Amino acid sequence: MPTTAPLSKPIKLPERLCAVLLLSSVLTGCSLAPAYQTPALPVPGSWTHAPAAASAASAPTAQTAVEPLSDEETQLLAGLDASAQLPHRVEQALAYNRDLRLAILRVEQARAEYGMSRAARLPTVGLGLQRNRQHLHDEAADERYGQDIAVASVGISDFELDFFGRVRNLSDAARHDYLATRYGALAARKALIVEVARLYLQERLQAGIQLDTQSILDHQNQLLHLLDGQQQAGLVAQDTVDTQRLQVHRAALQAQDARAEHERAVQALSWVSGYQVAPSTQATLDPSVDLGTPAWLVDLPSQRLLQRLDVRQCEEALRAANANIGAARAAFFPSITLSTGAGIASPHLSSLFASGSGAWLFTPQLNLPLFDGGRNQANLDLAHVRQQAAVAQYEKTVQDAFRDIADLLSQRRQALADAATQVELAALTAAQAKRVEQQIAVGAAAQMEQPVAAIRLAESTLQLRSAAYSVSFNRLALYRALSGAPLASSANRVSP
Length: 496
Known about the structure:
Elements: H1 15-28, H2 71-80, H3 85-96, H4 98-119, E1 125-134, H5 139-145, E2 147-161, H6 166-232, H7 238-272, H8 309-330, E3 335-346, E4 358-367, H9 375-442, H10 449-481
Antiparallel strand pairs: 1-2, 2-3, 3-4
Helix pairs in contact: 3-6, 4-6, 6-7, 6-8, 6-10, 8-9, 9-10
């Protein structure tokens, strides 16, 4: 009976190779990513929730460091409101606002990118351990190309010798980008402080307007009650009573609108400060007009515009674009990279650290661009265009800053003139109301004159309040327009 050839035995993997495969499969299953957690909602639990009773989940988490208020900022806020509520609101907003947090995180991102570009100027030293085994079935080829060697070395790999400044210019561009981002974050912080102060003053203004309109409504109702009594006595006509009733309805509508405006102001202030506390009612509502000129508005040379944060940001962006031109020019020249290492080598792991097993590697490489389809030239043209665009953006920012400050100074003169006029009118109205009370007390005037004078006084107070807050709003706008510039008078100011 014919015999069949025995089947070839299956090739078994060596135990060492199996261990390597098992270890590789275990390592590939590992993950160094942090466990995902859904962020807590930074808002109250419901739309109908009162701002003072916001849930704990709505409180901001301190993920980024927030700088405390500077002396300059504290002095500005103290000049706008004597109570401690405004600085407290500003601190809450600085911790709660996500736009500011994003700006700060962009600064940290730019800082990390600058660190990476700066590290590229230094060689990276690494430790390597290799075990190479390669065998061929052909004995002649195996004798020539086969490998069985273990190598342990310390060295650098693909380090570019920056003879033409390409890496240095890229690092400088990253540094200026980082500084530009930093100035942008500072500008965002200043803008947020000004916005919180504006919303706070707006809430105080609307609270005062609500108080004045309610006073007008009360006195209009008092006057209507007196006219009703006189009409019943036959002293006045019904048309006079109906006309006064129309005045009462108009005053009621004004009071209703004032309440709605105050609620919107409260909502806006609560939103920007994180719905953490109820609006403060401890601050005074009496209108006060500051007609004086702050020290930082006494002398305003145009050179102070160069210290604005947005101008500094554009200047750093221009410096970064200028450095990118140097990096684009360096691409036309040869690049030299270097790889080197020193260590030990042996055909067996057991004799790897034996004497006489030293090894070294030195591999310089020169690359000269010959034909790239115009890529380097196009990259250089792009760098030049971006630099010109940065120049135009810088000049436009300076022009806009000059126009903004000029407009605000013109508005300030008008606001001061209006406030001075309203102060005189309020004083005259108050004196007239006082004379009416004296005349009523001695019987020289009718009782009906008292609510009429009170209505005029409340209307005058309302106008004075609006004029006083217009001056404060203008001062805030000027502070933001000069954001970053030294707020000092010419006597102690150092010229930039």
